Amino acid sequence: QVQLVQSGGGSVQAGGSLRLSCTAPGIVSTIDVMGWYRQGPGQQRELVATITHAGARANSIEYADSVKGRFTISRDNAKNTVFLQMNSLKPGDTAVYYCNAHWWMGATIWGQGTQVTVSS
């Protein structure tokens, strides 16, 4: 079964930085959209950021309002890898972060999730 492999995350004090990485070993096709979602305690999973690859919206990026100006998403298309640089972290950013890969034809897969904890 094809999976995404995440790395990074951990614990940091407010104002600190963390970097998440996600790769797709075994996937040789182009991934149309890669992104990050998060799920805080007692909350629903929500979009953090996405970045496209193919077509007219190549490399278009979307951020949740709550992370704009603090988080940066980027990808290495050749390696089907996506990164999330998180700066100026806040306690409200505490969540399990999930990597996502999506194809326009409708297929989607998730990473295993990684905990990010920000203390005040």
Summarize the structure in short:
The chain is an all-beta fold.
Question: What would your notes on this structure say?
Answer:
It is a single chain. The protein has strands spanning 5-8, 10-13, 18-23, 33-39, 46-52, 61-63, 71-76, 81-86, 95-102, 108-110, 114-119. The strands form two sheets. Strands 2, 4, 5, 6, 9, 10 and 11 form a seven-stranded mixed sheet that branches. Strands 1-3-8-7 form a four-stranded antiparallel sheet, with no helix packed on it. The radius of gyration is 14 Å and the shape is globular. The chain is mainly beta and 120 residues long. The model has no long low-confidence stretch (mean pLDDT 93).
Largest sheet properties: 7 strands, mixed
Based on secondary structure, the structural category is mainly beta
Total helices: the number is 0
Rg calculated over all Cα atoms: 14 Å
Question: How far is the N terminus from the C terminus?
Answer: 39 Å
How many DSSP E strands? 11
Q: How much of the polypeptide forms β-strand, as a percent range?
A: over 45%
